[in-house]
Amino acid sequence: MEYTNLGRSGLSVSRLCLGTMNFGPETSEADSHAIMDRAHEHGLNFFDTANVYGWKKGEGVTENIIGNWFAQGGTRRERTVVATKLYGSMGDWPNETKLSALNIRRAADASLKRLQTDYIDLYQMHHVDRDTPWDEIWEAFSVLRQQGKVIYFGSSNFAGWHIAQAQEAARTRGFLGLVSEQSIYNLMTRWVELEVLPAARHYGLGVIPWSPLHGGLLGGVLRKQREGGGSRSSSGRSADALEKYRDTIDAYEKLCAEIGEDPANVGLAWLLHQDGVTAPIIGPRTVEQLDNSLRAAELKLDAAVLGKLDELFPAPAPNGSKPAPEAYAW
Known about the structure:
Protein name: Aldo/keto reductase
Helix content: 40-55%
Order of helices and strands: EEEHEHEHEHEHEHEHHHHEHHH
Domain NADP-dependent oxidoreductase: 15-312
Shape: globular
Distance between the termini: 42 Å
Oligomer: single chain
């Protein structure tokens, strides 16, 4: 497994990040523990979660599963860079959501308790809070850092100008600020290339793409359907997108077959070729799915393949090869 620094920080993380959103709703606790053990066997040290994962309001199901795994000892905690998030509602009363200083304090303490640890490596804002001033947010975060409860801070689902706001506000306080941004980013959803990626590169944030396979559509969905699988992409928004982009996805799977690589690994490897990307988040539901994802970390795509991928999934503007604002202005 290769490692890289998380943005401009000195923190070393694996080039693939283990996403845990399936732990609880899709994967049992025992199987989740087995996946995390196997991740360590493969050298993955970067795990991502959130206080709302598990989707039972206020229970923190997924964080509890990870905490029970840490409690088994064997240097599990020491070998893991654990990233969690706050913002989503954890209750029905006021101040149990978003980024007020009060909720930051309560949410951090609750996550620490569920994770059965005394510090969080990377604490991420799950969304921008338009109602709370940055001075309040950074003051609350600085207290957490002074207390030793959090080491680094990150954002998720921010626009480029939100990143700029956050970093400039942190600068006025002499605070390190954000070291990462977690955005939806994949071959089918490339909007972050216009503003978010340039902002992240400018301010030294590592980018952690979520949904790197666009809900399974880039994971060989047509092949799986022919083989009697692919149920995850057979309903809801995934089904609508599949119908709309069927010809493109078919051409993508044929290209992957030509180079002898699994579509899922090609989609992940493409992200690892993008300037500023630290580690795509993989969300295996089984140990086998985790094992199969490891090929992406070592897969090198040549210029010809990268060019064909750009033709199939073009940048999100007529002049997308140029940076914003030229990408859409001239």
